[in-house]
Write a structure and sequence with these properties.
By secondary structure, the protein is an alpha/beta fold. The chain has eleven helices and ten strands. The protein is globular.
Length: 378
Amino acid sequence: MLKKKPIAIDLFCGAGGMSLGFEQAGFHVHSAFDCERFNILTHERNFPRTRAYVADLSKLSGKCVREISRLGRRRIDVIFGGPPCQGFSVGGKRDLNDKRNRLVYDFARLVKQLQPRYFVMENVKGLMYVHAKPVLKSFIRRMKLAGYVVVEPIQVLNASDFGVPQRRLRTFVIGCQKGLPLPSYPTRSGCFDESGQEFFPLVKDAISDLPRIDSYPDLFSSDHFPHKLPSTTNTYALLMRGELVSYDDQLHREIESMTGLTGCLRTAHSKRIIKRFASTARGSAEPVSRYIRLAWDKVAPTIRAGTGADHGSHTAPRPIHPSRPRCITTREAARLHSFPDWFQFHGTRWHDFRQIGNSVPPILARAVAKKIIQQLTS
């Protein structure tokens, strides 16, 4: 067994969905990098033991990464990250010339320069499609030339197969240095309660215990719900609240000091929109906005991020609440993404949904990270 937690580096960290999953699996995320300042501020708020830096990784060398993060000559056990690749996204406009498509090569370059024992590269499902295959093949070839063995065939994992109440398909490329034990992809496995009992949560498990914010006009101007949450026996909700701890969660946070709940900002819908939302059947799309109304007894559709300021600052379609004629809140989206209640986001709706929609669900990241740590501790 390892005496100390293995060291991880998060490249293109975003708000920290993968960081959280890897910490929950038993890693120490030593440092994290992202080009957007609001992501780094969010990361710092939630991971006080991690050194987080605003950096353009396309212009940074491995030597600079070591110097900036004060790693010195310490060995890195795993580098993980999700370089933006919206040009291959199934849900957005495909653009093979999108400069962000080349960031996967910068990830490969930094792995080659930093020489971690293992790496995990996460990306959109579209990376597996014919139009994007040349990029994926080139990435794999670069990793092999750098001295790494890649787990093949490459797999697309669905978050709902790992205990996340959301259908979200993501490509994962996993590899290790030659001579090290090769990890495998995780197989279908749900959430676990304190006793190790497995279950697969649905929308009702994720958000049915949350407050009926419609009764609180103050939440039009503040995202903080200052009251105590009602009691519940729902296991997934209790895990998100921190009142239960999964047997495989190595990063349980004490929440006695937590007052209320953040991420509860209300949206001021017009009467016309409220009427349209109210008449939309659960599990179907509202005809005008095309927003999907959630169904209590199913998993949520993919929560999308929208676009950044460099691509028009478009807001992504937000799901409609299953029983209330309104869009879901940040906290409800976070629950559907498996972010625990102590996790805080930027504080504005546009940024919050971008951070959630761009992140890897922590429970999915944890499932992958557990496969890496099993090889490190074997």
